Amino acid sequence: MRFPIQTLARCLVDPSADSSPSFNNASFALLGHDLLGYYISEAILCRYPRLPMTVVFAAMSAYSGPKTLASICREWGVEVAAEPGGEVDPGYLQAKRLPAGNAPIVDGSGIMRKEIEAGKKVLKSWNRGLSSLSIQNEYFGEERRTEADLAERPELREADGEKSQGKGVTVEKACMTFVRAVMGAVYLHGGRKAAKLFFKEHILSRQLDIGKLFEFRQPTRDLSRLCAREGFESPVARILSETGRASRHPVFVVGVFSGKDKLGEGAGGSLNEARIRAAVAALKGWYLYSPMNVRVPSDAEGDDGKPWQPVLVDGGEVVV
């Protein structure tokens, strides 16, 4: 694939530095954002079909969130220009930086920007569930104000307008936009295969422990409801081994069983801690199920695509 140097130079121009859509990377970044969301969502959902939506959103943010893409930009060695302009070397990322929180509104006035921001009224949109966020194409589970919100509360539109009036962007956001723009440009110049290879080598190749994204508040209750939904016998905790019960640091090993099948095992300094750890291990064993030889929908695209094989569609997470 031949990647034109002119395209790379355009990817280095943030919309905050040049508002002309013919010279900035806004169009490339929009395409790259959609491609990253598509490739990451299919990779996660096909590989772990039983993940709860909160974990799916967290995993997508870990793979292609602002902090991750900014880190990738730094790993590529991209440097941000101090100030955008025509005299800047084309190899630097140009963006108008957001003023610091302790910068004065007017030089010499002594009134700090963070003092003005702290005095403004905080406006929040209406609460929504995870299902509505996924329907609204929110890749990372973040709330986004809709036209209905703006119609019911006109002050929200005014607040959004104040935030976007020429304040620039953070370095993190500029780096994120650059990586997305490169992804979109690779797709346009190299095609689907080049974009998929670029995604696998730079995004999906990053190590992520999905098991550390879970946070259970009442794992024993969740496990009981899961067994009832799937038609399993009620889970029962049993002591497998113990040592030092009369000492200052005892260790108990507890297993959770459904009938004769052991669902999980955990160790702790008390029986209750070991039982909870065993329930967490059982829940992770269920949610982290991954089928073998997984194929994602994008593998079947094109004339040379592989035959499509249906993947597991789970009943969803436990609702308590």
Instruction: Calculate the mean pLDDT score and round it.
Output: 83
Share of helical residues: 40-55%
Give the ordered list of helices and strands: HHHHHHHHHHEEEH
Main sheet strand line-up: 1-2-3
Number of helices: 11
Class computed from helices, strands and strand pairing:
mainly alpha
**How far do the termini sit from each other?**
51 Å
Q: What summary fits the major beta sheet?
A: 3 strands, antiparallel
Shape: elongated
Can you offer a commentary on this structure?
With 320 residues, this protein is mainly α. It is built from eleven helices and three strands; from the N terminus they run H-H-H-H-H-H-H-H-H-H-E-E-E-H. Strands 1-2-3 form a three-stranded antiparallel beta sheet, with helices on one face. It is elongated and about 75 Å long. The model is unreliable at 120-125 (pLDDT under 50).
